[in-house]
Design goal:
It is a single chain. With about 250 residues, this protein is mainly beta. The chain has 2 domains: about 30 residues, no CATH class; about 210 residues, Jelly Rolls, CATH 2.60.120. Helices cover about 5% and strands about 40% of the residues. The strands form 4 sheets. Strands 4, 7, 8, 10, 15, 16, 17 and 19 form an 8-stranded antiparallel sheet that branches. It has a 6-stranded antiparallel sheet with strand order 9-18-11-12-13-14, with no helix packed on it. Strand 12 and strand 13 form a beta hairpin. The longest helix is centred in the C-terminal third of the chain and has 11 residues. The two termini are about 30 Å apart.
Length: about 250
């Protein structure tokens, strides 16, 4: 693991007490508020990485914090809103549930397993409001909330977590697409294994089903981390919970 820059270290003795906040970059990923994702994420979007915006401004680009550069973009009429001081003094990206969505078309085709971590708060549960999605037709996959239940889909039937979250309560959720051993974890509580289907995914979207045609999300999304692989949830869930005060 390459540490590219260390701040506020004035002597060799201080190296033993380095905190995450002192490290500017690890393996090309910038450290934000002391949290670094485990492993090697394919893409990482954190609301506190967005710069140059004030409260209420539209978000045209949500930068990918990995070296892969899979930035999310939105057309002028589809842009969500940047909101400050939403959770633990940190900002969020707010989606209106009507036409807001962001997408990257360069992620390409990715095979299962796929693991995604999300920190979010949904204002209204309705219409299988979609947090993340990708692909189309038989390759369609998405992570959604409906009447308080988190679910995942990939070509097959919807599968849901039995435990419910609460409207307008900030939560963290982990979704693993891995055939018959897929699962979702809401605030660290894992569902039984489910089978949402098999197949590859294509590209990546936040806030709606691929193409921005339906199932729009209404609420705040604070952070999204995506992996190609079966990333263990332990470290990221603990880090996200600490960062966002959950």
């Amino acid at each position: 693991m390459a540490i590219e820059k260390i701040n506020n270290i004035s002597s060799p003795e201080e190296i033993n007490s380095i905190a995450y906040a002192d490290i500017a970059k690890i393996d090309g990923i910038e450290v934000v508020h002391g949290f670094v994702p485990s492993g090697t994420p394919l893409a990482w979007y954190s609301a506190d990485s967005i710069t140059g915006l004030s409260d209420g401004d539209p978000v045209s680009t949500w930068p990918d914090r990995t070296a892969n550069g899979f930035d999310l973009t939105a057309a002028t009429t589809d842009r969500p809103t940047y909101k400050t001081g939403i959770q633990n003094t940190l900002p969020a990206v707010r989606f209106d549930g009507t036409d807001n969505w962001m997408m990257n078309l360069s992620v390409g085709v990715r095979s299962q397993p796929i693991t995604v971590f999300i920190v979010y708060s949904q204002i209204v549960y309705a219409n299988y409001a979609t947090m993340v999605s990708g692909g189309n037709g038989s390759a369609n996959f998405y992570m959604y909330n409906h009447i308080g239940q988190s679910g995942i889909r990939l070509a097959g039937p919807d599968e849901v977590l039995t435990d419910k979250s609460h409207p307008e309560t900030m939560s963290y959720v982990t979704a693993r697409w891995s055939g018959a051993t897929s699962f979702v974890r809401l605030n660290g509580v894992q569902s039984a294994a489910v089978d949402p289907g098999t197949g590859d995914i294509t590209n990546f979207m936040i806030g709606a089903v691929t193409g921005g045609s339906s199932r729009f999300f209404r609420g705040d999304i604070c952070e999204v981390i995506m992996y190609v692989g079966a990333e263990d949830p332990t470290a990221n869930e603990a880090g996200l919970a600490a960062k966002w005060g959950l």
